[in-house]
Amino acid sequence: MRQQRLLNPTLRDVPGDAEAASHQLMLRAGLIRQLSSGIYSYLPLGLKALQHIQTIVREEMDRAGAQEMLMPALHPAELWKASGRWDVYGPELMRLEDRNGREFALGATHEEVITTLVKDEIHSYKKLPVTLYQIQTKYRDERRPRFGLLRGREFLMKDAYSFDRSTSGLDASYQAMFDAYVNIFTRCGLQFRAVEADSGAIGGTDTHEFMALADVGEDTIVHCPSCQYAANLEKATGSITNTRNSHTDLATTQPVKVHTPGVTSIKQLSQFLHIEPQHIIKSVAIQANSTPVIVLVRGDLDINEIKLKQVLGVEDIVMLSEAEIAGLGSIAGFIGPIGLSTVRLLADTSIQGLQNAVVGANEVDYHLQHVDVERDLGELNYVDVRNVGQGENCIHCGHELSFAKGIEVGHVFKLGTKYSESLGASFTDENGLSEPMIMGCYGIGVSRVLAAVIEQHQDERGIIWPNAIAPYAIHLLTVQLKDEAQLKLSEELYQTLTRAGFSVLWDDREERPGVKFNDADLLGFPLRITVGKKAGEHVVECKERRSGASYELTVEQLLPHCQSLLN
């Protein structure tokens, strides 16, 4: 491709509303342009990189035995109502009506559609297992689209669905997809980790997220440097060993009421009593299915709402109002577990064994000191409902856990019979009995992978593309187009390299050399070949974008070098 004909509107300045490095660089390098909040057009270079990612995805999915198809993006509401997700998916589902008032949704995911299709087309165990996938645009009404392609309203996704006759078959399909994902993200040049995860609105069990490590990531990864354990914060578990608070001023054996005027937060209480937050028990009043519950957690830790919902077996929880808290016999800001005999107590494992702890006294401006959990709170139901905190240990090997930020680029689920039972997808086994199909679901955010790659592969000058997904492998620069020797050699190299199978962008613009070099660094293709003052000697300069290595080669040496470096 000749660059003077390329639609590539680069920007010199960083757009003010672009926070993430990938968003800034994709705008500056002319890969994307925003149409509306969270909605982008892909310009030629951006589309080329996206297509290379799709090629890798297709190759690995096909190698794993999956078959590609394409499903509609417009879904009739009755499918989602049949699965029960029309009412529970939430406001992210884009809903609309046709001219006849019939309800539809723009596809956020395709479990209902694929299950209905397979239900109608596969009836015998002889046709199982089968795994089907598509690469298609998805739509979600994100509350706060941000970071460019990392969180948008319209995005490209690969979604696959497996159908098996047994749980062991699902295990095999799941492992095949897991392995394919490892290959895909490795080939794309991503640094990533597969972590245990929560299934969310899609449902199912035994799920893993594939997280690209990046500081801009909105997800927190908890992992063990000593063993292979890794999970996102929503799913992670850790081990805490509580030690006795040995502060000399608190040495006593019985709870004591202490006046704490206007002290309603953990931070205020810690400062007022000169104790660490881990020696305070936080009492959180919530309502689950119309039942009030007091959740107890150590003061330096936060309740994990997803874990709490799972423990309580509810889809939603709400905080109690001040009036509702008063109805329990307590007061907002001073809630404590002692004396609330009529309300259910749920204790996080973080408070187990705590001694000399501080709790609310259920009285305005008062707390209780010197509380011994085992002695003073009686029999408690201990569960894990917290976010893992700094200093916790791995439950598998005991090593201290580490934390990192990540971008979710893939997610694999074992759905089981959640959708096949609700939508009637069954098969007849060899004994003539009808059984529900056992499903798996596997997604990759293809456009998000593109952004994640740039987030990891860039420097102060621009993008540094991995070879496999670079829009072009070679950036050919002609320093002086008016120099006949340079123009002639550039034309010859462009034809030779292109015929050899390399994708080449030839900068044949009438621009100053400095502009060309800066643009080449911004676009970040793996190899830059500069035809300059030594063109008459058939010598060119090569520069590798990743390593920064610069050297001269003769024209005769160039092709073998490109084959070695880029293939």
TrEMBL record:
InterPro entries attached to this UniProt entry: aa-tRNA-synt_IIb (IPR002314), aa-tRNA-synth_II (IPR006195), aa-tRNA-synth_II/BPL/LPL (IPR045864), Anticodon-bd (IPR004154), Anticodon-bd_dom_sf (IPR036621), Pro-tRNA-ligase_IIa (IPR002316), Pro-tRNA-synth_IIa_bac-type (IPR004500), Pro-tRNA-Synthase_IIa_type1 (IPR023717)
Residue ranges of every copy of the Aminoacyl-transfer RNA synthetases class-II family profile domain listed in the record: 33-466
Location in the cell: Cytoplasm
CDD domains in the cross-refs: ProRS-INS (cd04334), ProRS_anticodon_short (cd00861), ProRS_core_prok (cd00779)
Superkingdom, taxonomy of origin: Bacteria
Reactions catalysed, as given in the entry: tRNA(Pro) + L-proline + ATP = L-prolyl-tRNA(Pro) + AMP + diphosphate
MF terms in GO: proline-tRNA ligase activity
Listed EC numbers: 6.1.1.15
Presence of the UniProt keyword Repeat in the record: no
Key words, A-Z: Aminoacyl-tRNA synthetase, ATP-binding, Cytoplasm, Ligase, Nucleotide-binding, Protein biosynthesis
Subunit structure: Homodimer.
Entry remark concerning the domains of this protein: Consists of three domains: the N-terminal catalytic domain, the editing domain and the C-terminal anticodon-binding domain.
Function: Catalyzes the attachment of proline to tRNA(Pro) in a two-step reaction: proline is first activated by ATP to form Pro-AMP and then transferred to the acceptor end of tRNA(Pro). As ProRS can inadvertently accommodate and process non-cognate amino acids such as alanine and cysteine, to avoid such errors it has two additional distinct editing activities against alanine. One activity is designated as 'pretransfer' editing and involves the tRNA(Pro)-independent hydrolysis of activated Ala-AMP.
Stated name of the protein: Proline--tRNA ligase
Species whose genome carries this gene: Paenibacillus qinlingensis
